[in-house]
Every structure is written in structure tokens, then in C-alpha cells.
Amino acid sequence: MCAAAYLRQRPLLRDLLLGGRLAEQGLLDVTAIEHYLTRDLAEGDFDYFRLIEIGDIERWVRAVEARVSRGPSFDQRRY
Prior knowledge:
mainly alpha
């Protein structure tokens, strides 16, 4: 089930990882990720979980950057 979801979302994950801040900063092995994303999954291959985790980190980085660009929240300004 997880593998099927990964395969359906693979193009979006590819764009997220290869076009993201982590790749831009040189923190990812872009060549290895591109290679992995183009191959078929083998039985027992669960390395895609790592890519999903990296995708979560990428989304977190983007959320933090968006929040910083908006300035402090009302609660933060009260201090």
C-alpha cells in the first residue's frame, strides 16, 4: 500500500526534492536521488521511505522560511 502511494506520488516527490532548498544548498545527492526515482521498486526495497522523510524535511524548511518572511506572530510581538 505504501509502495503504491509512493509510485503515484513519485513525480511530485521528484519535483519537491530536486527543486527544493535542500538540493539548492547542496545537502542532497541529487544524482543518486534522480537515479533512485527512475528505477522500478524491487521486492523488499523500502529505501523510498527515506526519500519521503527527506521530503518532509523539505516541506518543513519551506514552512519555516514562509513563516520568517511574514514576520513575528501576534503572540511573539507581545514579548
